[in-house]
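A favour between colleagues. Tell me how you read the following sequence-structure pair.

===
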Amino acid sequence: MVEAVARHGFASTTIRELVTLAGVSKSTFYEHFEGKEDCFLSTFDAIMAQLTQEVGEAYEGAGDARERLLRALDRFTAIVDERPEAVAFVTVDSLTLGAAAVARREKAWEAFEAVARRHLSPAGAGAEVSELTVRAVVAGTTGVIYRCLRAGRSEDLQGLVEPLIDWAFSYRQPDSEAVRAAVAAAERPSAPLPVRDSTAVLPAWEEPPDSPRSRSQLSQQERIIRAAIRVVVERGYEALSIPAISATAGTSNQTFYENFKSKRDAFLAGYESVSAGALGQTSAALERAEDGPEAVGLALRALSECIAANELYARLAFFELAAAGPPALDRADETMDLLVSILERAKGEGEREEPLPHVVLEATAAGIWSVIQREIAHDRRHSLPEVAGELARIAVAPLGGG
């Protein structure tokens, strides 16, 4: 399974290929697994068990918290060098299963979260570190590993260990003035966007793509785009096919090919349209704010409100997008870059004498994104604005001195 997924991804892996690579029969495969997804998740569990054991062994032993964590993260990065395909399987490829792998991923990182919780909340270390912060630290660290693997620069990881440890320990500091300013801004509801002329509003995404209104107000290309999104939302990306898109749009397969080369192209066009509309308020909040921690708080509040109000975007961005493979992961990385740019708006506002390493911004952005995903996965999407203040704290705390 690791070899096949490394070659061309989970979606294109077949059971025939798996049994050929393994040198077993199909009947033997089905004695152990219900299907391809079950085999993938079992492989994920096996890799994570070995990873947890090896990193745990490096963590145990003499030394203070920093020394032990350095040893553990050093071992993690060494495993990336030794078994890059296996680490990519759990940090990159598992994302392509969408919602099916969320619970597995959460459970897999529990041991690492327990270690982070132990060292980020010791007695006398200042304010108690929240559970959301603990999750952000672990997810942010693995997010940096993900980005290095995707960019083909795993050799950079060794040099990022110490900055990541410093970043994690920055959350032990009491709130700075910058943090308090960001939190206060994030706890205020966003100013509403100007109301658009209702005559220019297209049919809602919930409108069937083949309805009379859609046929009269949307082009064939727009109906195909909406049909692709509708199939994915109702049945998942695995069920997406050109005949399914054409049937939902009320068009022919020939019409589809006149507009798109593949089902993925149609889906990604739909995602970009949904994303542009959903993130409009976040961009507007950034445009209205001057640089500083308040800008970060305002943007994270707007982002939280946007996701809370837009179930379609939440479903696509956090669960279905990655299932479309590498080009879709590129789109997800672009969203992460947007978060990094939000964090950059607060750079230089703290008491730091030296510039913050860029890896800290990447880790913080990945941590925030993962926290939001977990809130959505546990049916707390509508409550996201209530945790915007905590997201702002996660964003700005590393910018302080110390």
User: Anything to note?
Assistant: The chain has a mean pLDDT of 89. The chain has 22 helices and no strands. Residues 137 and 367 are 6 Å apart (CA to CA).
